[in-house]
Amino acid sequence: MPVSIRTSQNVLLEYEPASLGDRIVATLLDYLIFLGWVTIMAYLASAAGRNPGNYYWFFVVLAPILLYDLLTEWLLNGQSLGKLAMSTRVVKLDGSRPGLGDYLIRWLFRLVDTRVLNGVVAMVAVAANGQGQRLGDVAAGTTVVKVKTPITLDDVLHTMLPDDYQVQFPDAISLTDRDVNIIRDTLRTRSKFLTSRTAERVKTVTEISSPMPAELFLQTIVADHQFMTTRGSA
After folding, report:
1. Which residues pair with 14 in a beta bridge?
2. Which of 218, 120, 97, 221 is nearest to 168 (CA)?
3. Which of 32, 53, 75, 122 is the most buried (most CB within 10 A)?
4. Is the four-CA dihedral 156, 162, 167, 170 of positive or negative sign?
């Protein structure tokens, strides 16, 4: 069941939620990282030839493990290393970008979600919730979705437009940069269903009427918006 996310301009997009299997494997990969960290720290303590004491084991060894999920998701834009390997990411259901407070809520609920009964609570919640949310996700208004394609240089650079480019849909200027970036992401999925739904929603929001095929329409919207917000305003 797709996860519906509505942007600030009321554009409705749908994403594939991360499966329960994806989330379990990502968690297991993170646990392997924990195991590797403890092994390395224990080896360094042993190599030093002395007992480093409780402060070492708590602040140097245990504290990074306790803070791992919070810090990695905050610093890596919603991904722990396990999520990165499984191509999944934390997103907000209202279309905004998750902030530190959202990641903090997810982290605080993790004790109940994944530590109690060996994660049974989280698995039941994700399986039962229609949007793939564990309790921490429900509290933070987030969920975990599949990342369709990795970020490349092409994702960052704008398409080069000619100086004499003719804008076809001036009302595209009403969309925000974030909305246009989401449209780009939709085009990269090459999903006819998502492209068609997005095109219809953009037409509704911008009150644009066009017989163009959905993919061509969205490509034109992106180009028009880029031209009007860069060269058009120069």
Report:
1. 4
2. 221
3. 122
4. positive
Residues in CB range of 194: below 8 A, 6 or more apart: 13, 14, 186
Note the pTM of the prediction, 2 decimals.
0.63
What is the structure's pLDDT at 169? 93
Which helix (H) or strand (E) covers residue 229, if one does? helix 214-229
Confirm if 24 and 83 have CB atoms less than 8 A apart: no
Give the C-alpha separation, 64 to 62, whole Å: 6
Q: Which of 59, 86, 54, 89 is nearest to 74 (CA)?
A: 89
At 143 the pLDDT is: 92
Q: Is the pLDDT of residue 35 over 90?
A: yes
Grade residue 82 by pLDDT with cuts at 50, 70 and 90.
very high
